[in-house]
TrEMBL record:
InterPro entries (alphabetical): AsnC-type_HTH_dom, Dimeric_a/b-barrel, Tscrpt_reg_AsnC-like, WH-like_DNA-bd_sf, WH_DNA-bd_sf
Biological source species: Gelidibacter pelagius
Record's keyword terms, sorted: DNA-binding, Transcription, Transcription regulation
Alphabetized PANTHER family for the sequence: HTH-TYPE TRANSCRIPTIONAL REGULATOR LRPC (PTHR30154:SF53), LEUCINE-RESPONSIVE REGULATORY PROTEIN (PTHR30154)
Listed PROSITE patterns: HTH_ASNC_2
Name the record gives this protein: Lrp/AsnC family transcriptional regulator
Positions of the HTH asnC-type domain: 1-52
Gene3D superfamilies reported for this sequence: 3.30.70.920, Winged helix-like DNA-binding domain superfamily/Winged helix DNA-binding domain (1.10.10.10)
């Protein structure tokens, strides 16, 4: 239930799982202390913020010696939502949000210094 709505009240959760609000609160606190719940996040309507293009960009790094440098530079770019080191032919998988296709092109040109990008635009999610 917390995964769907982290702001759900302990009383509401308690009613659905047949526990008191304090009992739910205690269990949630235990999950936080054990490191099972790492934090809470926010859902944002990116379209209302001007994001029209979302894309996955796999980057095959030119030289393994530049992988760490590329990762450290790319992860801090404003457009980057995620940057994961992955196995296989590609070294990085980047999720980026862009105002338009031109901003995506500019980003791809910027990261091409590190390797060969393969881009997939997200049509629906």
């Amino acid at each position: 239930m917390l995964r769907r709505n982290a702001r759900e009240s302990f009383a509401t959760i308690g009613k659905k799982v047949e526990l008191s609000a304090p009992a739910v609160g205690k269990r949630v606190k235990q999950l936080e202390e054990k490191g099972i719940i790492l934090g809470y996040s926010l859902k944002i309507n990116h379209e209302k913020l001007g994001v029209a293009t979302k894309a996955y960009i796999n980057l095959s790094i030119h030289q393994s010696s530049t992988l760490r440098t590329a990762y450290n530079q790319i992860i801090h770019q404003e457009e980057v939502q995620r940057c994961d080191r992955i196995t296989g032919e590609d070294s990085l998988c980047i999720l980026g949000f862009f105002k338009n296709n031109q901003d995506l092109i500019t980003f791809i040109e910027r990261i091409s210094q590190y390797g060969v990008p393969t881009t997939s635009i997200i049509l629906e999610s």
